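Q: I'm writing a short explainer about Efflux RND transporter periplasmic adaptor subunit for a general audience and would like to include a description of its predicted shape. Could you first generate the structure from this sequence?
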Amino acid sequence: MSRFWKITLIVIAVLVVGGVAFRLLHKPAEGPGNGSHHSRQAAGQGGGSGGNAAGGNGQDTPVPVTVEPTVKQNVPVYLTALGTVTALNNVTINPEVGGQLWTINFKEGQAVHKGDVIAQIDPRTYQAAYDQAVAKQKQDEASLATAISTLDRNQKLVASGYVAALNMDTYRNSVDQLKATVVADAAAARSAKVQLDFTKIISPIDGVAGIRQVDPGNVVTTTTAIVTLTQIQPIYVIFTLPEQNLEAVRDSFQNGANKLEVIALDRADAHPLDTTGGLQVVDNQIDTSTGTFKLRAIFNNPKSALWPGQFVNVRLRVRTVQGGLVIPAQAVQRGPDGDFVYKLQPDQTVAMQPVKVAGEVGDSNVMVGSGLDEGDQVVTEGQFRLKPGSKVQALKPGEVPQPVAAAGDKKKWKKGGHRANAD
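A: Of course. Here's the predicted structure. Afterward I'll give you a sentence or two in plain language.
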């Protein structure tokens, strides 16, 4: 058989098979099957109607949301800034006299107190100089005593003519000269005593010792730094604010008797690092390069939670708003026209209410400047399912909504609570 006839037979076979398959797929149902087909169509039409009805009921089902009332309370107004912790005093200890360093009497990182001897320099040379000055003073005091005695004795002999009056002037001048010498000796002795005392290096402040710069046995001079002492109780926090806040800060600082509360928080704004401090100084000029002015607060720092050089977040309370309106922060939504909240209406629907946020109150609330009144109920949870006019089921915080049966489940129950036969 030629190639042409083979192809022809294959094409005919394909056409026959396709025709048979088409006939079988489009064969009309007969008898009971045909009735079932119409029943399914009727059921489908009825189901569609019921579905629309159920859909209508679904739209009327209230959306469960959490609502909270607007409350009135006194609200502190804070200005926030980034601050740097600075030591109250920072003293680098240098010897007043030179010599060999005998001992170091502190541990690095240890707290030292004012008046403590923190190091000792070899005192022997200074002790000898002091002893020498004291001896010289005593020698001149003895000479002065002799001169005074001679003057008194010759004073009695002048009247008898045994001593010339001219010699009396010499005796008097000798006494005065020796008195001056004794005074100079006393000053030299005190100076030598000061030099001797300088061999004991004494802490001038209460503070914490840093890392020492020298070791015992080294020869130190007046330019040698031994250690740096840092006073951290109390301690400063220095921060800056924009110049537009200057007037408000100055007015509150003066009217509040120089007692403005300052809070130092950790870098995450999670919790205060120390007890509340107070504003101490407002700088006398504005930095023209940054448009800010500097402020300094002081903290008692009893637990040493604030450490020199540390960065902290600062809150400065400048005033307190009496009777401010406060709502939870999560109630405020951002829209194309600004901030708004969903406000609960008397008919249990919600409406979009534009609001103006005046500031934060703590970590979870905000103060509303306009748009709400005291007692207004606002939605705090479930806003993503709402639109203006939505009917809602208002719940208190923590309250759980009651479950609602679906429309299909309702059809399975007869009046009186008996379940219908689903077959």
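A: For your explainer, you could say: Helices lie at 3-25, 32-60, 124-157, 165-197, 246-255, 407-410.
Q: Perfect, that's easy to follow.
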